[in-house]
Amino acid sequence: MNELHVAWAPWSGPGHEHLVLREVSGALTAHSTVEGVSDQGRRFSIRYFLRTDSACRVREVELALLGGDARLSLRSDGAGRWSDDKGHPLPELDGCIDVDISASPFTNTLPIRRLGLAPDSSDDVTVVYFDIPSLSVRRARQRYSCLGPSLYLFESLETGYRAELPVDTAGLVLDYPGLFRRLPPR
After folding, report:
1. How much is the average pLDDT of 101-112?
2. What angle (nearest 5°) sits at the alpha carbon of residue 128, between those of residues 40 and 12?
3. Is the per-residue pLDDT at 2 higher than 90?
4. 84, 52, 154, 44 alpha-carbon torsion, rounded to 10°
5. Where are the beta strands (DSSP E) in the chain?
6. How far is residue 177 CA from its own chain's centroid?
7. Do 175 and 165 meet the contact criterion of CB atoms below 8 Å apart?
8. pLDDT at res. 40
9. Exposure string (b/e) for 110-143, b if CB count within 10 Å is 16 or more?
């Protein structure tokens, strides 16, 4: 079993994420706490848990807004069919394999690892997008392009937003220009 402790901070303003990532037989579990400030200037703290299968397909994600009752728990069959914590199907999320938690650069690791893109190749993905701190959920279309062995281009196909993401050997983002920067280990 491999275990990594990773931390990121916003480029500007207060905030911090501490992630504990465990890998067993290719499957990942992530436990993280994120503190930050929303686009509207509201402070928030969230905790999330995420689990993938050995093909890096998200199987479970749980989010909780700390200091309140807001919680969200979703499960996937790994083939893009989602349900809530009571087992009720969520057909509006059909086809989503990956997730994107807006307050965390970690979720970019999931499609980067799952797709295993060769340099100069790209692939489009549809993700379950979690807006933080509202915990609202929607589908989002994105593209990942491999620019080199440790550099990816992320694109939102809906907004046109683009960012080059340098990553380490585990596919974890080192720098998300304008949003997050990886902190050195303590």
Report:
1. 97
2. 35
3. no
4. 60
5. 2-10, 16-24, 27-37, 43-52, 58-65, 71-76, 82-84, 98-101, 122-131, 136-148, 151-156, 162-166, 175-176, 180-182
6. 16
7. yes
8. 84
9. bbbbbbebeeeeeeebbbbbbbbbebebeebebe
Q: Which of the 8 DSSP states describes residue 174? A: S
Q: How far is the C-alpha of 132 from the C-alpha of 70, rounded, in Å?
A: 11
What is the separation of C-alpha 79 from the centre of its chain, rounded to a whole number of angstroms? Answer: 18
Domain boundaries, the chain: 2-182
- Omega before residue 133 within 30° of 0, cis: yes
CB 64 within 8 A of CB 71: yes
pLDDT of amino acid 1: 60
Residue that has been written with the tokens 């050997």 in this structure: 169
- Tokens representing 133 are 């701190």
**What is the C-alpha to C-alpha distance for residues 186 and 64, in angstroms, rounded to an integer?**
27
* Residue 142 confidence (pLDDT) above 90: yes
Give the confidence band of 185 by pLDDT, cuts at 50, 70, 90: confident
